Amino acid sequence: MTDNTSLMVGRTVLITGGTGGIGRATAEGLARLGARVAITGRDLKRAKAAAAEIGTATGNPAIDAYAADLSSQAEVRRLAGALLAAYPRLDVLVNNVGGYWAHRHVTADGLERTFALNCLAPFLLTNLLLDRLLASTPARIVTVSSGAQAMGRIDFDDLQGERGYSGQRAYNQSKLANVMFTYELARRLAGTGVTATVLHPGVVRTAFGAEDQPAFFAVMSKVVRPFMKTPAQGAETPIHLASSPEVEGLTGRYFANRKPRSSNKASYDRTATARLWQVSADLTGLAHDMSTSSKHHQPS
User: Fold this and answer.
1) DSSP summary character for residue 164
2) pLDDT tens digit string along 241-292?
3) What positions does the domain Ketoreductase occupy (predicted)?
4) So what's the pLDDT on residue 296?
């Protein structure tokens, strides 16, 4: 990370899930670099409190709070509308929000929650904000995945875990989907000045998965907790990808510890990434304004 405290002055950054954990640490890091930072959380009171605390801690008062349950597509669309109304430019989008559930839950849209929140929410939000990002070039889209992507497999015949649900399998699949989304997005945005990267933040001490976790997970967490990264350490790679001149123009890559790494072999299957994109577009009801016949985005 650079020590240049004016690196992000004049730039606007959106971080989903910015009220705690890696998202909040990322917000703090980018605020220290001078960015105007918008964070989202499910509860407006908590989001506003986090924004105020980030402002105080960093000496940067330009921290805005938005509330949205991103597992709901209506909420994603409402959030996007509010952001487009508030910000004439958007330089960086950090898709950080994610979750893990040991048991199968269904969202307001009738979708399995892990897939809805971890895969479809960033897909839909990114696409809804894409024209603003394109108008703000050079711009960056940074998506937080996980090392779990290495164990992931996309089951196109049972994406929603209806036949047999495993929390870990659903999570692994969703994190692989984040990588595939990023690679497909990078291809579609080639030459536009908007880059897309994806990362593994490391195993971080957060309240992740606390809503519905298997009992062994709680026990194991206590054992390995001292060896986990702090949220600030976990935020180093997303901050780097959001701000560093070193990665300017770099797109379609997976990072860990601020270095490019290889991802799951399946993520390089262009037929599968294009198929996942189409399935995501169908499940979100997204107007097909990104031509599947062209790698370039055609702004509407």
Assistant:
1) S
2) 999 999 999 999 999 999 999 999 999 999 999 999 999 999 999 965 444 3
3) 11-207
4) 46
pLDDT digits (tens, 9 = 90+) for 93-148: 999 999 999 999 999 999 999 999 999 999 999 999 999 999 999 999 999 999 99
Supply the residues annotated as catalytic.
Answer: 171
Q: What is the pLDDT of residue 287?
A: 62
CB proximity list for 102: less than 8 A, separation 6 or greater: 167, 209, 212, 213, 214, 217
- 64 φ/ψ angles, rounded to the nearest 5 degrees: -110, 145
The range of the structural domain enclosing residue 150 comes to 12-284
User: Residue 121 corresponds to which amino acid?
Assistant: A
Domain assignment of residue 50, yes or no: yes
Phi then psi for residue 14, to 5 deg, are -110, 130
CATH number, position 188:
3.40.50.720
7 within a domain of the structure (yes/no): no
User: What is the rounded CA–CA span in Å between residue 164 and residue 202?
Assistant: 28
How many Å apart are CA 149 and CA 171, to the nearest integer? 8
65, 74 Cβ separation under 8 angstroms = no
Question: Residue 17 falls within a domain, yes or no?
Answer: yes
Give me the number of domains the chain comprises: 1
> CA-CA distances (angstroms) from residue 37 to 31, 53, 99, 126, 131?
6, 13, 22, 17, 19
Residue 3 domain-assigned (yes or no): no
Is the backbone of residue 249 left (phi > 0), alpha (psi -120 to 50) or beta?
left
Tokens 């839950």, located at residue: 105
Q: Residue 218 above 70 pLDDT? A: no
